[in-house]
Design a protein that fits this description.
Elements: E1 3-7, H1 11-16, E2 26-30, E3 51-52, E4 55-61, E5 77-84, E6 87-88, H2 89-98, H3 103-106, E7 118-119, E8 130-135, E9 138-144, H4 152-162, E10 170-172, E11 187-192, E12 195-201
Parallel strand pairs: 1-10
Antiparallel strand pairs: 1-2, 3-6, 4-5, 4-10, 5-7, 8-9, 8-11, 11-12
This protein binds magnesium ion.
C-alpha cells in the first residue's frame, strides 16, 4: 500500500508556514513503514529538534483506479479516519531552502499514526466535518473539511492522473492551522467531531 499526503490544503495552515496558496494539489508520499503499529508510542526521532503534529482526515481507497473523473471519485473510498502527519520541521526547512525533496522530514518510521477507519455513512456530510487534535488534553488544532482548498473528490481525481490508486492506499488530506512541536511524554489524541479515534504517547 502507499500513503499519499496532500500539503497546503487549508489556507490558514499554508499561511502560518508562509507557503503560497497552491493552484493545484501539492502531494508527497510516505512508505508503509511510516505507519505506527496500534498501541505503539511515537518514538521521537533523534535527527530532529522540532517535530510537529499535523492532524488530518485520512481516506482509504477501496477500488482500483487510474484517471478517475472527479464525478466518479466518490466511488473509490467509503471509509475515513484521522491521522497525524508528523513533520521534522527543522529538517523540512533545510530541504525547502536547498530545493531538496522532503522525505527525510516527512516519511520517517512512525511518522503516520492513523486511526481505525469508519464508514463515511456515519457522518451527515463528510465535506463539512469537524476534526481536532489535543496535546495533554489541550486543543491545539481544530479544522473542518469544508475549508479544504481541494475536496476529497478533487484530490482523488488529481492523484489518479499520476498514480494508479490501489485498494488499501490511504490519502492524508491536509492539515488546518495550529501545528506545533511535540515533546517526549506528550499524550496525543485525535478526534473526528467529538469521537476520539486515535491516541498515543510520544516516547
Ligand atoms: Mg500534512
Amino acid at each position: 500500500m502507499k500513503i499519499i499526503c496532500i500539503g497546503r490544503n487549508y489556507i490558514d495552515h499554508a499561511k502560518e508556514l508562509n507557503n503560497p496558496i497552491p493552484k493545484e494539489p501539492v502531494f508527497f508520499l510516505k512508505p508503509d513503514t511510516a505507519l505506527l503499529p496500534k498501541k505503539n508510542p511515537f518514538v521521537y526521532p533523534s535527527f530532529s529538534k522540532n517535530v510537529q503534529h499535523e492532524v488530518e482526515i485520512v481516506i482509504k481507497i477501496n477500488r482500483l483506479g487510474k484517471h478517475i473523473e472527479e464525478k466518479f471519485a466518490h466511488k473509490y473510498y467509503n471509509e475515513i479516519g484521522v491521522g497525524v502527519d508528523f513533520t521534522a520541521r527543522d529538517i523540512q526547512q533545510e530541504c525547502k531552502e536547498k530545493g531538496l525533496p522532503w522525505e527525510k522530514a516527512k516519511a520517517f518510521d512512525g511518522s503516520a499514526p492513523t486511526s481505525n477507519f469508519v464508514s463515511i455513512k456515519q457522518f451527515k456530510d463528510i465535506n463539512n466535518l469537524g476534526f481536532s487534535l489535543q496535546v495533554n488534553g489541550e486543543i491545539k488544532q481544530q479544522g473542518n473539511t469544508k475549508d479544504m482548498l481541494f475536496n476529497f473528490n478533487q484530490i482523488v481525481a488529481y492523484i489518479s492522473k499520476f498514480f494508479t490508486l490501489k485498494i488499501g492506499d490511504i490519502i492524508y488530506t491536509g492539515t488546518p492551522a495550529g501545528v506545533s512541536p511535540v515533546q517526549i511524554n506528550d499524550r496525543i489524541e485525535c478526534f473526528i467531531e467529538d469521537k476520539k479515534l486515535l491516541s498515543f504517547n510520544v516516547k
